[in-house]
Amino acid sequence: MDAQAMLQLAAEARQRAYTPYSHFQVGAALLDAEGRIHMGCNVENAAYGPTNCAERTALFRAVADGCGPGTFQAIAVIGDTDAPIAPCGVCRQVLVELCRPDMPVYLGNLRGEWLATTVAALLPGAFTPKDVQPTEER
């Protein structure tokens, strides 16, 4: 599936966002190894801490649907921003944990602007699962 098709699906997911506080809707579309798309949108909460971003919603949904970490093929994220949207730091860390470093990440906005990057480029020097293993197991 190409970037444009994925960004269109992310835009559809964006319409489902629950954002009564910020009114800032974000959508994501995650492509798995079987060619299935897992949609995600941001879901806010009055307590703020439980709020979940679109990227994490799509990733967590895919894991809950049985997809294993490292099997994802690409993710597209879209928002109503001046430039193509950028994932927050927490989402970047979750991408590092669940996706291959070279996995494509398509970032877009509602004006049709977009760019392609990778998980590794979004979070250089990332803290990874291997960093939490005891030294003798590395």
Automatic annotation (TrEMBL):
Among the record's GO biological process terms, what is one? pyrimidine-containing compound metabolic process
User: Which spans are transmembrane here?
Assistant: none
Which GO molecular function annotations are given, in alphabetical order? cytidine deaminase activity; identical protein binding; zinc ion binding
Q: Which residues bind Zn(2+)?
A: C53, C88, C91
Catalysed reaction, written as an equation: 2'-deoxycytidine + H2O + H(+) = 2'-deoxyuridine + NH4(+); cytidine + H2O + H(+) = uridine + NH4(+)
Provide one Gene Ontology cellular component: cytosol
Q: Which annotated residues bind substrate?
A: N42, V43, E44, N45, A46, A47, Y48
The CMP/dCMP-type deaminase domain extends over: 1-130
Report keywords, A-Z.
Answer: Hydrolase, Metal-binding, Zinc
Q: Which domain of life is it from?
A: Bacteria
Q: Per its Swiss-Prot or TrEMBL entry, what cofactor is needed?
A: Zn(2+)
Q: Which InterPro entries match?
A: APOBEC/CMP_deaminase_Zn-bd, CMP_dCMP_dom, Cyt/Deoxycyt_deaminase, Cyt_deam_tetra, Cytidine_deaminase-like
Q: Where is the active site?
A: E55 (proton donor)
Q: Which Pfam families match?
A: dCMP_cyt_deam_1
- Give the enzyme's EC designation: 3.5.4.5
Q: What does this protein do?
A: This enzyme scavenges exogenous and endogenous cytidine and 2'-deoxycytidine for UMP synthesis.
Family statement: Belongs to the cytidine and deoxycytidylate deaminase family.
User: Could you identify this protein by its name?
Assistant: Cytidine deaminase
